[in-house]
Amino acid sequence: MARPAELSLREISALVGLLDQGRPGEAEQRSRLLVMTYPNSGTLWKVLSVAQLHHGTDALDFIRLSWDPNCLDFHHTERIVSNASTWQVRQEISFASARRWRNREGFLGPLRHLMALSAGPANART
Question: What is the 3-state secondary structure (H, E, C) of the chain?
Answer without folding.
Answer: CCCCCCCCHHHHHHHHHHHHCCCHHHHHHHHHHHHHHCCCCHHHHHHHHHHHHHHHHHHHHHCCCCCCHHHHHHHHCCCCCCCCCHHHHCCCCCHHHHHHHHHHHHHCHHHHHHHHHHCCCCCCCC
